[in-house]
Design brief:
Rossmann fold; 7-stranded parallel sheet; 15% strand; disordered C terminus; globular; 12 strands; alpha/beta; 5-stranded parallel sheet
Length: 321
């Protein structure tokens, strides 16, 4: 029997699946906020299951004396020192693809809202104003160009959804060759980042946080975007300079922005002016929906169980030998 410690929210049926496999499961969704208890439980756990807030590095990682598996309820791995885990023989398993549809729907919805510009007027209309002339200049999505920065699972799912809206699709990804069949299969033209920023009416970011992507969208790069373009960031906060986004919106160089991820989460009060135009801020929830929670949790439960069984069998064979 293994001991599995879950530090953040996991869907109930997936927790029950772990328990039903005969393992001891410690499930405390707020454990991430209790460093002392987390450190204590980490010492004798065989598997650790986390979301994006639990930092699997430093003292916590050093305390994982027995741990064989770290399950990530999501896809980003910047909160986990993957190299140090590998050196310790700890397998790190993300829920690749399980929340792609949720993120893709968020991106397409945000793009439509910001292009049209007609869905943020509730307060004005309710107060007796009638900004019909002002809001009658919104843009349709059909015929516009969507530029995807990163063309992995989420970028490709976003492309599939956007096809039905009549958007032209372009993408850039340093990992994929220009002749990768994924581009042709989805009717997406591979381009350079510079060409994408020049041509795209909507730019959506789908890249991990690495040394190469940190600060990728600074003030200069935002200034190089097509005038009036919309920016959607569902990747990681440190990739985009939020202050530069706010400045570009205030100067009407950007047509709109939807930001779901931030350098510091929660976003500190006062970082963004309340009257910043055409800006949507959401609390890191693009990949979180009722359905995606179920899929992500189920994938991680299955993968953690598989790896515990595999490593348990291997350990048993070594003891017999």
């Amino acid at each position: 029997m293994a001991r599995i410690v879950i530090t953040e929210f996991m869907d109930g049926p997936a927790v029950a699946q772990l328990r039903g496999a005969g393992h001891e499961v410690v499930y405390e969704p707020q454990l991430v906020d209790d460093a002392a208890r987390l450190a204590q439980l980490a010492q004798d756990c065989d598997a650790l299951v986390v979301r994006n807030r639990t930092q699997v590095r430093g003292a916590l990682l050093d305390g994982l004396a027995r741990c064989r598996v770290v399950g990530r309820l999501g896809v980003g791995l910047d909160n986990i020192d993957t190299q140090a885990c590998e050196a310790r023989g700890i397998r790190v398993v993300p829920a690749t693809g399980a929340n792609a549809l949720s993120v893709a729907e968020y991106v397409v919805t945000a793009a439509l809202v910001l292009l049209r510009g007609a869905f943020l007027s509730t307060a004005a209309v309710a107060s007796g104003q009638w900004p019909r002339a002002q809001l009658g200049t919104g843009r349709e999505a059909a015929g516009k160009t969507l530029g995807l920065v990163g063309f992995g699972s989420i970028g490709q799912t976003t492309a599939r959804l956007a096809q039905g809206l009549g958007l032209r699709l372009i993408a850039t990804d340093p990992v994929l060759a220009a002749d990768d069949p994924a581009y042709a299969a989805l009717g997406v033209a591979p381009v350079s980042l510079e060409d994408l920023l020049r041509d795209a009416d909507v730019v959506s970011l789908h890249v991990p946080l690495t040394d190469g992507t940190r600060g990728l969208f600074d003030a200069a790069r935002i200034a190089s975007m097509k005038p009036g373009a919309v920016l959607v960031n569902t990747s990681r906060g440190h990739i985009v300079d939020l202050a530069a986004v706010v400045a570009a919106l205030g100067e009407r160089r950007l047509g709109g922005a939807a930001i779901d991820v931030f350098d510091d989460e929660p976003l500190p009060a006062g970082m963004v002016p309340a009257d910043c135009p055409n800006l949507i801020l959401t609390p890191h929830i693009s990949g979180v929906s009722l359905e995606s929670n179920e899929r992500v949790s189920a994938v991680i439960a299955e993968r953690v169980l598989d790896l515990l069984n595999d490593t348990g069998a291997a350990d048993g064979a070594r003891r017999v030998g």
